[in-house]
Amino acid sequence: MDIYRDINLSFNNSEDQDVKKSKIDIPDSKKSKIKVSENSNLKNIKEMGTQNIPSISNNIQFLTIIGHVEGHSASPPQNKSTKYEHIIPQLVAIEQNDSVEGFLVILNTVGGDVEAGLAIAEMIASLSKPTVSLVLGGSHSIGVPLATSCKYSYIVPTATMTIHPIRMNGLVIGVPQTFKYFQKMQERIIDFVTRTSKISREKLVDLMNETDEIANDIGTILIGEKAVALGLIDEVGGLDKALKKLNDMIMEERKKKEKTKTKEDHGDDEKVGNDEEILS
């Protein structure tokens, strides 16, 4: 036992010596150069896989709606999702912020929860500021009303949009009642899309109920120019066109505000003149 103890002690002593040898004193002047972990660019590459986006003071706010539109139930952890409880406060802040003059929505979504998607779409449609949407990759299912919610919409030539009737997962209790509820919810989507785009109600319903387009589902897949030809999207274009259109809309909005302000100033001047005449 004493022999083993001596051997263990000798090993421990040698390990301690190796650890002491590995510790190198670094001068304070060089420590600042070795603090790699404090580099914000490297931190962002480690966490997000990309460098920091340059901060540019701009009057345009943009929002990305990607993956699955999450509703009252959380999406599986492996799915990318957009949460409506994150989006709605941002929209309220954009509406109240005077420095933000325009809003760009970039979409690449598979769809998701109907009520959450409609809630976001209604919020975007009710913004008083110029809004433009850009469909990249795809804007399927409830992504359709999200794409049409802006005042002007773009789609890139290779992007797709899938239009289909609403679906439901889980247990169905009472088939007639559930079917009526489905009809009411479907009407909400149809009413919103026809209100915020140029497509006719009849054509939209026909596209939803198409049976020859998708092998294992009901609906229609629209690609780029087809979505524009049917009046669902306003124009085919990419980021350059979307930003140019948004800037043009911002300039028009500025001109309207200037005219309104000029009229109000003239009205105040006339009121002051009338008051002076009465006093004289």
UniProtKB/TrEMBL annotation:
Lineage top rank: taxon: Bacteria
Protein name, per record: ATP-dependent protease ClpP, protease subunit
Pfam families membership: CLP_protease
Nucleus keyword on record: no
InterPro entries according to UniProt: ClpP/crotonase-like_dom_sf (IPR029045), ClpP/TepA (IPR023562)
Keywords, in A-Z order: Hydrolase, Protease
Compositional bias ranges of the Basic and acidic residues kind: 253-274
GO MF annotation terms: peptidase activity
Residue ranges, annotated region (Disordered): 253-280
Biological processes per GO annotation: proteolysis
